[in-house]
Amino acid sequence: MASLSGISSRTPLALFFFFFFFFLCCCFASTTSAQLSSSFYNTSCPNALPIIQSAVKAAVAKERRMGASLLRLHFHDCFVQGCDGSVLLDDTSGFTGEKTAGPNNNSLRGFDVVDAIKSKLESDCKQVVSCADILAVAARDSVVALGGPSWTVQLGRRDSTTASFSSANSDIPRPDFNLTDLISAFSDKGLTTTDMVALSGAHTIGQARCTSFRARIYNDTNIDSSLAASLQSSCPSSGDDDSLAPLDASTSTAFDSCYYRNLLSNKGLLHSDQQLHGGGSTDSQVSSYAANSAKFFRDFASAMVKMGSISPLTGSSGEIRTDCRKTN
Ligand code: HEM
Ligand SMILES: *[C@@H]1O[C@H](CO)[C@@H](O)[C@H](O)[C@H]1NC(C)=O
Ligand SMILES: *[C@@H]1O[C@H](CO)[C@@H](O)[C@H](O)[C@H]1NC(C)=O
Ligand SMILES: *[C@@H]1O[C@H](CO)[C@@H](O)[C@H](O)[C@H]1NC(C)=O
Ligand SMILES: *[C@@H]1O[C@H](CO)[C@@H](O)[C@H](O)[C@H]1NC(C)=O
User: Model pTM?
Assistant: First the structure.
């Protein structure tokens, strides 16, 4: 205060500069608080990343598909209200969350792994690490655990106090989508067609239910006939909705570029997968990833960072949940 009165009593110009820099600092502080940062937990919870990584490694060692399930949770989180942990909220008598929406019901998995990670983090650093950030880090660590690329995860997302059943139904792309639908679903989230094709490579791991690919194996003409026949033996034209098949028939527990090689020979499992190759505008990108997995890895990593930055809650928006399944 002494220096302020000293400045202001001397000259109005000095006063002007004082307030000019004062407001500049304010603006700077408020824009940076809205940004994610890779060092967000460096001082507030230095063990956060190692804790998440070792839990993901253990879960994937126990069941390799869990890596796929955790990666998909982050995608379904980010496409609905942004990456805010909304997908993790349980339904209650007075609240319907996203878990029973069409793309999620009887399909999403990995919630117990997220709970276990959250409880370890709560005992190490109480109410510091958000559930939304757990999903972002677990997605990266899952891809790495299955042999895929690594990337630096941006952090500082906070958790929503709301969820949206209707947005989960409208905003998450469906397996019956054509290429135009897919491009626009991603463009609605600020992601390019290139991002969409790269992110679809996530289907190099994991499984889908019969109900998700039945129409493709009975009605599509652009499917390899022996693949269709073999899938039909476990996925009847009606019934057995939950019987599973690998999204990548060749290597469903390895994160590699086989997904794209499959598309070159009409071996995509989902109708939407095969839309990326076979006469459309994305054919050349698929061929390029099929031939060059390093290029796929680079593009996938950068598209994951973009997807992970969809409308995060930062600063004082939202909260840090103590239990990922419910608001505080
Ligand atoms: C391009 C539009 C996409 C569509 C139409 C789509 C659709 C689907 C469907 C229908 C399933 C099977 C669900 C079931 O039958 O239970 C699935 C599984 C999966 N999706 Fe996608 N998806 C898309 C993009 C993505 C993206 C961007 C990611 C992640 C970056 C992703 C990751 C996964 C994973 C890893 C699985 C397997 C999950 C498991 O085994 O538990 N998908 N997807
Ligand atoms: C934050 O921690 C990570 C991992 O220990 C380190 O690589 C990075 O340099 C740190 N960043 C800052 C800004 O301290
Ligand atoms: C979710 O799946 C269960 C079990 O199949 C079913 O009973 C329920 O109606 C489904 N929920 C919604 C909202 O479709
Ligand atoms: C894609 O599907 C939408 C309906 O989801 C339809 O309106 C559109 O005509 C289709 N586009 C092409 C190119 O088939
Ligand atoms: C295949 O297409 C026909 C005609 O559109 C439809 O009636 C039938 O339900 C479809 N089959 C499957 C398994 O989707």
Answer: 0.92
